[in-house]
From TrEMBL:
PANTHER family per the UniProt record, alphabetical: GLUTAMINE-DEPENDENT NAD(+) SYNTHETASE, NH 3 /GLUTAMINE-DEPENDENT NAD + SYNTHETASE
Catalysed reactions, semicolon-separated: deamido-NAD(+) + L-glutamine + ATP + H2O = L-glutamate + AMP + diphosphate + NAD(+) + H(+)
Pfam family, one: CN_hydrolase
NCBIfam families for the chain: nadE (TIGR00552), PRK13981.1 (NF010588)
Function text: Catalyzes the ATP-dependent amidation of deamido-NAD to form NAD. Uses L-glutamine as a nitrogen source.
GO terms under biological process: NAD+ biosynthetic process
Binding residues for L-glutamine: Y131, S187, K193
Pathway: Cofactor biosynthesis; NAD(+) biosynthesis; NAD(+) from deamido-NAD(+) (L-Gln route): step 1/1
GO CC, one annotated term: cytoplasm
Family affiliation: In the C-terminal section; belongs to the NAD synthetase family.
Protein's name according to its UniProt entry: Glutamine-dependent NAD(+) synthetase
Enzyme active site: E58 (proton acceptor), K125 (for glutaminase activity), C161 (nucleophile)
Length: 554
């Protein structure tokens, strides 16, 4: 037989399957809107890619995480109506859609397979997670059975998110005959998360001899950011395709099925730097929080320091310069360098910029307080008053013009309480809330590689709140290189004070930092939410009692 005839024979015995990964951004709670988005994306996947299967993220119908919306009495009705809408849409490809489903009185995090206008199968998530930012056991029961369906002649199994991270669900699915596993995800971003996902997928695919399609949500939801990065691994554990992070899209992958369901490999995107990924996470988080909550503009205090400069750049990149208003609010301790640098930042990025001195307001307050303050020494009360006056100004602009106030505190400051309640903490969204100060510097330099944004002097001069003469942050705190390492060990890794000291840090520094973290929980509880980029941010991740008698130690 001729070689060409051999190739033709193989062609007729090998099945082809085109799977489209629908890496999309859904709005939590908008079940009818999300259903319509699924229909439109499926039709696009058919028209542009001739998809056989379109796979959507976990709980795409409700958005993720829906939290206590899952307890609403009308949830079941709304989900049923949306599923009926999907069935009646006469979609050409099969679709796999995440949705909450009730069975025998229990609610499940489910995946629904719709093909030919009918529901062909329902998979109930086996392993609802209950750690870090996840609280699924509050709502969902545990599924038990695998689901394997023949779709276009290929045995296809379904799993949902955490099922991949635990032993059992993928193994059961492979044992039930699946050659291809479709895994639906709403996996939030944190630094190095994609690397951990890849190591897991490589192992699971190779151990179970199945190809795995990993489809992840993209977009921001309150403090969480989902980075996409959907992937395909072949049955030997080799990465065959990867979608970009922080980008919506429909990403097709072709499979050949004979003895194995083998993806046809695609060129892989370049590995992004840590700074690029974190910056994109911040931009995504700001863009979605502002837009999904219906704000037209944002306003922030521009101090001439690095935190507000970086926040301004993120806001402009997320929303466009015409939607950003920067306000400089100088006082007698504000340096000429800060005034010059703040104006330079605003002019460079092209935002609306105003200067309102707080001096007259401060003098009025101090005149009013002269009698009760008589005989007392100047202390942090007067410093905090300056911050609070700035907060009043920003909130007044917010109320009058409907702008969202962006606060500018970083994670290092939030950790030790280096912030003022009802002052620089007053606002709706803290862009840098989970970004340590040392990473702020790195992000500022990264942003300047894209286009000019932050003056070099802002990056190099010592940080200062400028609430007192010649004030420097490091007058009252360890250097940020030391502070951020201690905070990482204590906040993110749960080291005790003595364990941190054993790592080589000065006892005085450790005891001071640990005490500041502990006593400032009340402040953090009243702080605005912000983008989560680490494995343990101040928010859903870390829930400590404000009133407690726990003593730092071993």
């Amino acid at each position: 037989m001729l070689a060409a005839e051999q190739e033709n024979t193989e062609f007729t015995t090998t099945r082809k399957l085109r799977v489209v990964m629908a890496q999309l951004d859904f709005l939590v709670g908008d079940i009818p809107g999300n259903a319509q988005r699924i229909i439109e994306a499926t039709r696009q996947a058919w028209e542009e890619h001739e998809a056989d299967i379109v796979v959507f993220p976990e709980l795409a119908l409700t958005g993720y995480p829906p939290e206590d919306l899952l307890l609403r009495p009308s949830l079941g009705v709304r989900v049923s109506e949306a599923l009926e809408q999907l069935k009646l849409a006469a979609l050409e490809p099969a679709i796999v859609v995440g949705a909450p489903l009730r069975k025998d009185g229990l609610l499940y995090n489910a995946a629904v397979v719709i093909d030919g206008g009918e529901i062909q199968g329902r998979y109930l998530k086996h392993c609802p997670p209950n750690y870090q930012v996840f609280d699924e056991k509050r709502y969902f029961a545990e599924g038990k059975e695998p689901l394997v369906l023949e779709i276009r002649g290929v045995p296809v199994g379904i799993t949902v998110c955490e099922d991949l991270w635990k032993e059992g669900p993928v193994e059961k699915t492979a044992a039930a005959g699946a050659q291809l596993v479709l895994n639906l995800n709403a996996s939030p971003y944190d630094i190095d998360k994609q690397a951990r996902r890849k190591a897991l997928l490589e192992r699971k695919a190779a151990e179970n001899q199945v190809s795995i399609v990993y489809v992840n949500l993209v977009g921001g939801q309150d403090e969480l950011v989902f980075d996409g990065g959907s992937m395909v691994y072949d049955h030997s554990g080799v990465l065959a395709a990867e979608a970009p992070q922080f980008a919506e899209g429909l990403f097709p992958v072709d499979f050949l099925y004979e003895h194995h369901c083998q993806p046809i490999s695609q060129p892989l995107p370049p590995e992004p730097s840590l700074e690029k990924n974190v910056y994109n996470a911040l931009v995504t988080g700001v863009r979605d929080y502002v837009n999904k909550n219906g704000f037209k503009t944002v306003v922030l205090g521009l101090s001439g320091g690095i935190d507000s400069a970086l926040t301004l750049a993120v806001a402009v990149d997320a929303l466009g310069k015409e939607r950003v208003h920067a306000v400089m609010m100088p006082f007698r301790y504000t340096s000429s360098a800060s005034l010059e640098d703040a104006e330079a930042e605003a002019r460079t990025l092209g935002v609306q910029y105003d200067v309102f001195s707080i001096e007259p307001m401060y003098d009025s307050f101090m005149a009013m307080l002269a009698e009760p303050f008589a005989g007392t020494k100047t202390d942090t009360t007067e410093e905090n008053l300056q911050a609070r006056l700035r907060g009043v100004l920003l909130m007044s602009l917010s109320n009058k013009f409907g702008s969202l106030v962006l606060t500018t505190g970083n994670k290092s400051e939030m950790a030790v309480g280096y912030s003022t309640l009802y002052g620089d903490m007053a606002g709706g969204f803290d862009v840098l809330k989970d970004v340590p100060k040392t990473l702020v510097f790195r992000l500022a330099r990264y942003r300047n590689t894209l286009s000019p944004a932050i003056p070099e002097r802002v990056i190099t001069r010592p940080p200062s709140a400028e609430l007192a003469p010649d004030q420097k942050d490091e007058d009252s705190l360890p250097g940020y290189d030391v502070l951020d390492q201690i905070l990482n060990l204590y906040v993110e890794r749960d080291f005790s004070a003595e364990a941190i000291i054993a790592e080589g840090y000065a006892r005085e520094d450790v005891q001071r930092v640990v005490r500041l973290v502990d006593i400032n929980e009340y402040k953090r509880r009243q702080a605005p939410i912000g983008v989560r980029i680490t494995e343990r941010g101040f928010g859903k991740d870390r829930r400590y009692p404000i009133t407690n008698g726990w003593k730092p130690g071993s």
